[in-house]
Protein: Metallo-beta-lactamase domain-containing protein
Organism: Oenococcus oeni AWRIB429
Amino acid sequence: MHIYADEITVDGDRLKAKAYDETDRQEIIIYSKIKNLQEKKFWENNRDNLLCVVNGDLGKPQRPTNFNQFNVRKYFLTQSITNQLNLSSFEKIGKWEPQIFFEKISDRIHFFRKSAIDYFDSMPSPLAEYAKALIIGDVESCFYDQYPGISDLGLIHLFSISGFQVTYFFVFFKEKFQKNVFSQGTFSHIDCSCNTSFFVFSDSVQSLIRPIIAAELSLFASYFNLRVEKEKIWSFSLATGLLLSPMLLLNLGGQLSYLLSFSLMFIAHLKPFKQGLLMSSVTIPIILNSKFTWHFLSMPANFFSIPIFGIVIMPLIGLAVVLHPFWTQAVCFINYLVALFADLIEMISKIPGKIVFGKMEDYLVIPLVCLILLSFDQRKKIRNFSLMAIATAFTASFCFIHFPMNGEFSAFDIGQGDSLLLRTPLNQKTILIDTGGKVALPQEEWQISKTSSNQAKSIIINYLQSKGINRLDFLLLTHGDMDHVGNAKYLFSSIKIKHLIVPLGMTKTNSFRREIKPYLGKTDVIEVTNQVQIRNFPFRILHPFKSGSAVNEDSIALFAKVGNLNVLTAGDLPQEGEREIASRYPDLKIDLLKFGHHGSKTSSNINVLNHWQVKYGIISAGRHNRYGHPKKETLETISRLKIRAFNTQTNGMIRFVYNNDKSYFQTFTKDFNDSD
């Protein structure tokens, strides 16, 4: 593997690198675990481009396993990366010695880019993150987690190195040098070279393809005194961009880049306010289709942020880059101003006005974009028709998403854990049962990652928002194990939860005080046994029978009629608890069972399941989990009783969808394995 120094990312004890496979002539993503602090320092301080022998499991990038989940595999495909190397170890590491001229140039470019990254990292935060993102296109994976307001207000385009930077530097150098220093021809040569160097130095990011091609073509036409229509420049940049990167329009950045530049060609007749309104509104269908939310303040935020960026932020960052080695106090003051701007964005994003719209249907996106463009047409009849069609389409789409005729009982593929959703027709009731989560193992300080994997946000909240759900009526935690409650704190900070239901005695446990209580806010807490039945709660509580300490034996067992099926779920309740339920409720019949304890042999008593006459089952367990779930004994029970079982390990997310007319099971995929 040939690895460039500037394409290595170290986060805690995890290493990620983009490598070039010298044997198969392909780019590959490498994931590896760093063994010790000394090894971590080597990777962090390395500036050499390396030639390595790497041992690991070659496979395709991770695919989504839940409905409406971000598709990592598709994203890497747009970067022409189709494979990744997992659990890799470095057998041999040596410095790469380029042999031919172009390899030597590439080697120096990546060396200086790594030097620039290290230089920016020595600056205070957030100045360092802003400089890396805006000057060399290096955006850390934790950037938008640190500054969520940027995403909520739709300001990502300002931090994605693109035409903004190209235009800014072009205008800056033209004003400073062309009139006083260089002739038109000389300036064109210099600017052309700078654009090309900027593209290469920014790691050839896709978002720069269009503005660089357009800028080069404009300079070429200007140099030879040719008049080339802007439509032809845009079309040529699109054709060339697709030639260089065929997947360019399959990612959000490429779509927004070409759409916004296309819109710019038709706004000359508009006043400045309407120009800004068009540029903000034309992107809404694409954003709703991929992000599911929109903030009322995103338009005014863009109006004010763009000029502030051009007039204040960009010059300040450029000044700080120059002054950093010589004048620490000035750099600290600039960092203070940048931090004020960052805090202002976060403060504005927290003002009420965020709309959870839901996932707009794919077939509506392009027609709506066209209608929005036509709504700014000079002809009044076309404007009126377009506005009416837009209002109708958005209103109808919103109603279909927020008031669906069907309901669902779903099991998220949350790894080694449990998380179930009951959504009744018309979204009248939304109940989440457990949140999933990971057991935190003891770590040394150098092993701690800056970006923790947040399943609550990427899987649960993402799915809820795609369905237009902005609040939960009930969050029920069956017991206190981390694989059932570990993600709860992220949910409390991201979505409104009216009631929290826990087994009686759980509020006295250390796990509740540590993982739940600090994040509750105004959520009402209800402790329950089988004697407590909650108003407007669609489940009947069958267990626990007494107060406990929220261990497996105290798990809440829930029963409900969901569509045409009787459903039972009972957390990690052992076989003894199942027998007690069967004894107390002898007439209980179950059609759909969420198998207890992830398919462990400690649950799913064969006699009880046979008595309940279970027809369907759901197993929620992680792939390659260290416990070996589901156990052989449970699978034999399923086979003997002829239960049709679904497993998140192989089926991904599992949904039982129902309405008045029909009901059916739907899995994310029929069957798959890691090599698919």
In short: The radius of gyration is 28 Å. The longest strand covers residues 83-95.
